[in-house]
Amino acid sequence: MRQWLALRPNGPDRRRHRRGHAAQYRQQSPEGGSRILTTRPFDGSIASTAKTLVVVGAGPGLGYSVAQRFGREGFGIALISRSTENLDALVGRLARRGIRAAGFPADVADQESLRAALAAAETEFGTVDVLEYSPAPEGDSVVDALAITPANAQLHIARTLLGAVTAVRAVLPGMLERDSGALLFTVGASATVPLPAHASVGLGMSALRNYAAVLHTALQGTGVYAGALMVATRIQKNTSGDPDLIADEYWTMYHERSRSETVVGDLQLLASPPHGGPDRH
After folding, report:
1. 201, 278, 271: which is closest to 234 by C-alpha?
2. Chain segment 19-33, per-residue pLDDT in tens
3. Count of H helices and E strands in the chain?
4. Which residue blocks in 73-223 are alpha helix, DSSP H?
5. Is there a contact between 121 and 77 (Cβ–Cβ < 8 Å)?
């Protein structure tokens, strides 16, 4: 599995690229060796004080839209996903819009892998100012209540809750030190509405929702904001669940910094059978 790292300048400016510097990238092999892969000049559009958004669980739908929305505001974008092909595609799409982005492969269920990716992202961009956590559940792991096994339950807790806790513990100390930052979590409607076909997903989602809520309370007065966005509709372009509209909601949450939870969609409608389920973003 590849990991893209930027070779940093030494000295006091090592945590930020200066304007006009070329970023040299190397390919990190599983054995620990590396070689220079390519160079890419910065055009100077990203100031040394630019903030950074990390999207954990980045995909071509909501993850890309959130990255694009923050990128339009001058944020550098770090993307974390298991698939290097997915990361390459997303970084390319953002680059074509003039947004500086880099991808870091990791599996959110593998805590060591996730910590390493977050550390690499911080090395590349200097700081992590906003964390957005939204890994989608694996399709074949989504089962109804009668089919849940201990192993299945453990998988959902690991990917949804423990991955979030791992990510928060990696980036929160720096945010608290700077008295600034935001922790944003995407949760599905199964966190609060019993959706029989998505029962296994609800185990992790309900735990993540609770974690986001207690973080919101615990971080009051620290300068760090925590909030959850609950998706209670199908994520689909040109609908009320358009990922670009949801990304706008995230930007509003980040700026207002007041709500512990925002709901997109209609929870009451979902609670009335029959229903499908919007928990796959």
Report:
1. 278
2. 333 233 333 433 332
3. 8, 10
4. 84-96, 111-125, 150-156, 163-178, 199-218
5. no
Using CA atoms, how far residue 96 sits from 99, 100, 203, 237, in Å, is: 7, 9, 38, 20
* Separation between Cα atoms, residue 66 and residue 16, nearest integer Å: 23
Using DSSP's 3-state secondary structure scheme, residue 28 falls into strand
Q: Which residue has the tokens 């997303």?
A: 90
User: Which two three-digit tokens encode residue 251?
Assistant: 């930007």
Q: Distance between CA 49 and CA 134 in Å, rounded?
A: 26
> What Rg do the C-alpha atoms of the chain give, in angstroms?
19
| CA gap 158, 242 in Å, rounded | 28
CA distance 228 to 225: 10
Residue 253, H or E segment: helix 243-256
In this prediction, residue 246 carries a pLDDT of: 94
Q: Is pLDDT above 90 for 183?
A: yes
Half-sphere exposure of residue 131: CA atoms within 13 angstroms, side-chain side: 33
Q: What is the pLDDT of residue 46?
A: 38
Of residues 142, 219, 231, 150, the one with CA closest to residue 185 = 231
Nearest by Cα to 166 from 131, 142, 195, 139: 131
Distance CA 248, CA 208 (A): 22
Strand 224-232 to strand 101-105: parallel, antiparallel, or no bridges (unpaired)? unpaired
